[in-house]
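Input sequence (319 aa), recorded before submission:
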Amino acid sequence: MRVLITGATGLVGSEIVRLCHERNIFVNYLTTNSKKVVSRENYQGFLWNPSRGEIDLECFKDVTAIINLAGSTISKRWTPRNRKAIIKSRVNSLRTLYQALEKIDKSRIVSLVSASAIGVYPHSFDRYYVEDEKQVDDSFLGEVVQIWEKEVDAFKKLDLKVSKVRIGLVMSLKGGALPEMAKPIKNYVGAPIGSGEQWQSWIHISDLARIFLYVVDNELKGVYNGVGPNPVSNTKLVKEIAKVLDKPLLLPKIPKFVLQLLLGKMSYLLLASQRVSSKKIEEEGFVFEYQNICRALDEIYEGGEGMLSNSVSTKQYVP
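Predicted structure, token format:
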């Protein structure tokens, strides 16, 4: 089995690649940097330039599934320029893939699984969101996800099994939100954010990577939430991080207006509340290894993931 991965060098992509190699699944990946092209039997790099619609068609050779993770980070100030770049990076990547698939014999390719985000769900302290929710959050993030998923759905015209994984707050030491949340706690200035009551729908990096491969293995179609079974409040999450780090929380909650002054509209990422269900993927037979935040953080800081982040076996798959 061979999969093509876009965004293979990112946080989630690197973990998916690692799991692929554990399972003897061969990986083709796309990169915009010629210096990052690696050529091994189980790990082949190919060049592309989504902003120009350019791609090496050899990347599809022997591929049976595509995992799309491409897109610039949303964790930067939402200036008009950055907002445009965030949307274009997602749209251009998918359109470049689509146009390339129109040019080749794609009879071997069964499915496309694309990343998405739970930011599509409206901010709410009370609601519990499942995948068939029709309302879309009225923030920039909701706009991004709506445009992103529309581009993904276009691949249904190519007779592919199309699925989307709406990713929540990813728990990992190697990137994402956790290291940034832990930093002030380590320096004795950590505290819950805003009211602290906002729901944080989190997932361990390993479980998230396993969901992507599970969707590929079982040729699933549709939308699946990439979150763990037990969302927690921001206050609970901050307290559990402080507990595993053995650090006290000395300060009161950080007021909403302070975050807005520091981060502008991007502060919405920290203040939004989305309690999201994982039941749909579980009903397909997926079993989470990390069902509660305490166990996930213990493993990350004291067990495998923390140790793994420094190991050669992980880094060798990052071009």
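Checked by second reader. The CA atoms of residues 229 and 278 lie 5 Å apart.
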